[in-house]
Amino acid sequence: MRHSSKLGLAAALGLALVASGPTQAADKHLTILMAVPDLAFPFFVHMIDEGKDEANKLGNIELIIGDGQRSSPKETADVEAAITKGVDGIVISPNDADALAPGLQEAVDAKVPVVTIDRRVNKVPGILGHVGADNVKGGQAQGELIEKLFPNGCTVMNLQGQSGSSPAIDRNKGLHDVLDKDKDKYKIVFEDTAGFDRAKGLSMTESALASMKTPPDVIVCANDDMALGALEALKARNLIGKVKLIGFDALPEALGQIKAGNMTATIEQMPGGQVKGALDTLVSFIREGKKPAQAVTLLTPIAITSDNLNQAERLNEVK
Fold it and tell me: What is the DSSP string of 156-202?
């Protein structure tokens, strides 16, 4: 899933050649804030690494890294500090779409261009663009895989993501879009938020399994961290292979568990492609005045199983 060149990525993302913004010399030094919700999540560490790599390729760019520490006030403070510092632009995955809106509005009002990644903020007019995954389609991919695995129906345990985050909302919507079409066949027997957190995924799965007479046929999780927590609970009850386990994010650890036969699947949402597209969009606007052809670019996630592991962006990191 990795784009082989900046040109190919630009084409894939539909970057426009419309000059309608500030321009600077192509080699002028730029300072850009790249902020993510929490660097305790391996997913966001990978995003930052991909951002550093793309900044080096684009040249003469200093990335200021913002770690929101799962706190919207902290991430807002990082944005406000960047505005005060006079950064040339901001690439951000907001911890909470609504809570970050005022801070990002400050940036837009200060004429600092903003591109969001992974998580959208719809309440701020003037954001330059968004590059992310179509999380509704990602949730649908989970549901469609469940249908494929259990054509005659099954029981489902659903671990939802962080309340208020757009990926959690959209992934849950996509899953329900598919399974709710036939609720008699696909019965959700347990559903609650484990906050994208591995420890909560473990404890919630333990508690849910203890309360059930029979385990569910499948556990579906809104990210791999929760799935890996659920995996520990399944191991403790000798249910590996007996309960299907589906995650989301295609983390190397999850890919390794799929390869080993312990997890069933995960959803690849191309985080490297998201980050590169966002930085390319921002830098093209700052240096050349090029606006993106479309304000929102969504990459289509795919289900990764043992049959198509070679399509995972981070397969080379599996140990």
Answer: EEEEE--TT-HHHHHHHHHHHHHHGGGTTTEEEEEEEE-TT-HHHHH
